Fold:
Amino acid sequence: MSKEIALADIVKELSNISGFRISIYDTNQNELEGYPKKGSAFCQLIQQNPKALSLCHCNDKKAFETARQTGEVYLYQCCFGLYEAVAPLYHNGILSGFLMMGQTLDAMRDSPRHTYQTALPYIEDSTELKQAVDLIPVRSKSQILSCISIMEVCAAYITLSNRLKLNNQTLPVKIKEYIHTHYSSQITLDQLCSYFYCSRATLTKSFRNAYNQSILEYLTGYRLKRSKQLLEDPSLLIQDIARQCGFSDQNYFTKVFHQKCGLTPLAYRNQKLR
Structure:
């Protein structure tokens, strides 16, 4: 039987082969493994500035979302012109993290100057910035694309071997969080399956096992909970509350509210405001 390769070893070997920093993140952008342990001198310098750090986080978040949506390796340039790539990782068919490669400049003559000028507003010591830019690896486009091919193989291996287990948050918890954020919009099981990259059976079974109720039951209950809070504000129209809580119209909202709460929304409001 072949020896199981640890994530830390995969990251280290891929870094040694490519010459890039390789890291693995969970779905909340928390780094789980990385090699080398520290980022480049340029990234360390940039991230000392809160505004620049915020730009980096937003940039990575967009890249992770693109990789999640496409299910493929996504190659992009960060806000300072460095090339990075991210690939989605799965555990038993459920998105569980990302494999990331970074950071390098292409071999174009103006690339270092562009990075220096873009970063200069965030760095007080221009000499230190220049030294950090000079240390950024430079690779040709073909070398970068070759590394992407290796990343695809490694991401497939991690996925097929279920090497990256869901960390801290399980699928049911993630579903709850999604509902809490998107309850005012239309939510369907097919939409959730597409978002979490899992089958309907996995989606519904995992949630029921965790919370002893269906996803739609929980969604309806959460919408009603939010509607009760809003009904205590007499300045809000009931039809607006229905819309804000994800119900298609006021009549349907009233019907569901009466079925679950034993009162109409108006009667509930009057009772609370006595």
Observations:
- The mean pLDDT is 88.
- Strands lie at 21-25, 31-35, 74-77, 83-91, 94-106, 138-139.
- The chain has 13 helices and six strands.
- The first strand starts at residue 21 and ends at 25.
